[in-house]
């Protein structure tokens, strides 16, 4: 008689109290959650063919439970352990340090459930879930980044130019690579070119190639970036820095799909999709005669704006943790997560360098951190935030003083706008503008 073999399960033995969304997230990923109590010192109680990961949940901060958890972890060294602590819990205490040393991974609240699922899959012998196609290289859950992902999904399959705008460090090249990766050209070359870094006298040669003898030093034919990317995608970063002659050649390529190597009169037919990016105002550059208007309209068929990191508050801590995880996969580091003060500091900081600055600060902090939790000082944010707060306070003081001065002058002049303008030595239009700026209704002030 055949013996039916029970199917193996993937189980998390959760010593503590999982939140409903945490339990639901694990269940969705195929993990069975069994809640246990470390104080009872009960066994794991799973079948031999199960994949088991133990989770030490110490978010309640109970010293007795923490001591019991440490003993339990010592009694079950064969289990892969994941620790879950409150950010306020002092990681440098000997007991907590013992728990961290026994843990393969470490999480603080609020828990990134997606990252927890990925971690469990990795240490439990499985594979992390594959990312959704629209998430290729673009990380985040904020409304701002969701809008970007939605646009990328729409634009990727369309054979039209895309102009990507945004501040330096917002991930314009990441978006360009996502557009390429989701397009029918994904298996063909992707050429990223920083137009601002090209020598002005060699821009045409770099982009479109040259023939032997085209100029002094041209000892052999050179294939340009466009020909190298035949069938694929060319990404022109800082396209606003292109000199006018190169703009003319680029316009001809976008209109006719042909190019000429420098020193040749032979037209070369080429199939390449062009994506362009800029952090400058191209409309203003057109007005000033620094950028061709017809080229601007050719590039600006589809437009994708990358939001600044300060517009993505919901993503800051998640991005920082993912950068830290990626760093730890390549390098040894004591750091496993961020302290509560570091999280607050990251949310309060304006991030003028955007995602690139966040990445650099996290990598530096991962190197210098002595504890499991990265501090505000490790991120080098303490002094910067103090200066930022001082600047913000000064700005608020100036705004308040300006508002008070306008109200006082209006009252002294009996709300005669012309008389108020004369006393403040500004135009009547300026008085109306200041009233609008400070939301002052003249009828209500009288």
From TrEMBL:
GO terms for molecular function: ATP binding; sequence-specific DNA binding. One of its GO terms (biological process) is regulation of DNA-templated transcription. The keyword DNA-binding applies. Gene3D superfamilies: 1.10.8.60, Homeodomain-like (1.10.10.60), P-loop containing nucleotide triphosphate hydrolases (3.40.50.300). Residues 138-367 form the Sigma-54 factor interaction domain. The keyword Transmembrane helix does not apply. Coiled coil: none annotated. Keywords: ATP-binding, DNA-binding, Nucleotide-binding, Transcription, Transcription regulation. It comes from the Bacteria. Pfam families: AAA_lid_14, HTH_8, Sigma54_activat, VpsR. This is Sigma-54-dependent Fis family transcriptional regulator.
């Amino acid at each position: 008689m055949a013996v039916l073999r029970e199917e193996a399960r993937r189980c998390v033995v959760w010593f503590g109290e999982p939140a409903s969304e945490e339990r639901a997230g694990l269940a969705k990923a195929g993990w069975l959650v069994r809640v246990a109590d470390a104080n009872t010192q009960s066994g794991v109680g799973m079948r031999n063919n199960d994949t088991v990961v133990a989770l030490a949940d110490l978010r309640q901060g109970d010293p007795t439970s923490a001591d019991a958890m440490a003993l339990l972890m010592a009694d079950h060294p064969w289990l892969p352990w994941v620790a879950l602590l409150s950010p306020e819990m002092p990681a440098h205490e000997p007991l907590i340090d013992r728990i961290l040393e026994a843990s393969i991974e470490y999480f603080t609240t609020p828990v990134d459930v997606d990252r927890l699922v990925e971690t469990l899959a990795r240490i439990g012998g499985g594979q992390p879930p594959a990312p959704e196609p629209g998430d290729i290289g673009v990380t985040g859950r904020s409304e701002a980044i969701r809008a970007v992902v939605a646009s990328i999904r729409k634009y990727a399959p369309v054979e039209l130019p895309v102009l990507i705008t945004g501040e330096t460090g917002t991930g314009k090249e990441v978006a360009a690579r996502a557009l390429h990766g989701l397009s029918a050209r994904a298996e063909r070359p992707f050429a990223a070119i920083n137009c601002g870094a090209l020598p002005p006298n060699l821009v045409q040669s770099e982009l479109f190639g040259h023939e032997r003898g085209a100029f002094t030093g041209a000892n052999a034919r050179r294939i340009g970036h466009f020909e190298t990317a035949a069938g694929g995608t060319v990404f022109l970063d800082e396209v606003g820095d292109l000199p006018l002659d190169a703009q003319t050649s680029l316009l001809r390529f976008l209109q006719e799909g042909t190019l000429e190597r420098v020193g040749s009169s032979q037209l070369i037919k080429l199939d390449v999709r062009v994506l362009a990016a800029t952090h400058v105002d191209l409309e203003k550059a057109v007005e000033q005669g620094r950028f061709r208007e017809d080229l601007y309209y050719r590039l600006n068929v589809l437009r994708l704006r990358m939001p600044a990191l300060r517009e993505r508050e919901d993503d800051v801590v998640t991005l920082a943790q993912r950068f830290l995880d990626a760093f730890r996969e390549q390098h040894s580091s004591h750091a496993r997560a961020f302290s509560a003060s570091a999280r607050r500091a990251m949310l309060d900081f304006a991030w003028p360098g955007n995602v690139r600055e966040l990445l650099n600060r996290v990598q530096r902090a991962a190197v210098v951190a002595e504890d499991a939790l990265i501090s505000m000082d490790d991120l080098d944010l303490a002094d910067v935030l103090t200066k930022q707060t001082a600047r913000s306070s000064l700005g608020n003081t100036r705004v308040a003083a300006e508002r008070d001065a306008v109200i006082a002058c209006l009252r002294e002049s009996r709300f005669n706008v012309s008389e108020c303008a004369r006393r403040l030595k500004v135009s009547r239009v300026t008085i109306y503008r200041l009233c609008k700026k400070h939301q002052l209704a003249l009828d209500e002030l009288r």
